[in-house]
Amino acid sequence: MTVGHGLKTVVLISGNGTNLQAIIDAIQAGRLSVGLAGVLSDCPEAYGLERAHAAGIPTTVVDYRNCADRSEFDRKLHDELGTVEPELIVLAGFMRVISDGLTEHYRGRMLNIHPSLLPKYPGLHTYRRVLETDDPYHGSTVHFVTPQLDAGPPIIQYRVRIRDAETEESLAARVQAGEYIIYPRTIEWIAERRLDLRDGTVWLDGQTLQQPVVVDEEYAQPL
Ligand code: GAR
To answer: What is the domain extent for residue 165?
Structure first.
């Protein structure tokens, strides 16, 4: 069963799935016009799978631990996605690196959210790393996925000012609250055909986007 109507979308997760939940909530509230055709996890224990079940969304697990090597995992992932033929793939806390072949196949149709103001802090442990510096800001970025990890064209960023006595936990909570705003918003732009990627350039509302849209925490509005 597909939940919602519109652009056929699959969400890839590895863990808690709070971004997935924000997407489900936005669909159920009529604020997001996509059809969620499936949720795929690389890990059978991912709590996000329960969220998908609760919403009635079909789930698939491609357990990386049952794959002999990276190329077997990639092939299974490709095959599973091929059975659905999604128009949009949303990486929401999916912690495996996607193969070049798959990112090329879905170029312009695959989004990721990464917890930093890219190009700063690609990779892991972004909260810890930013707190080790005197950087005044942190945040999260939604970007189109390309073969280069966390380096695809950015679309929108949620930005928070780091407070005195900030901890990894407090910072993560503030940044994630913003992810639940910017990710559904980006997906809706794609569903409304306001946003796309052409020859490596992001277009939004008929204009090229030279810089990502920045949403500051103090001015953030819900979707
Ligand atoms: C999100 O905060 C997302 O930015 C991050 O994982 C979290 C998943 O949370 N993604 C990455 O680190 C990707 N490199 P969720 O499972 O509760 O949505």
So the answer is: 7-219
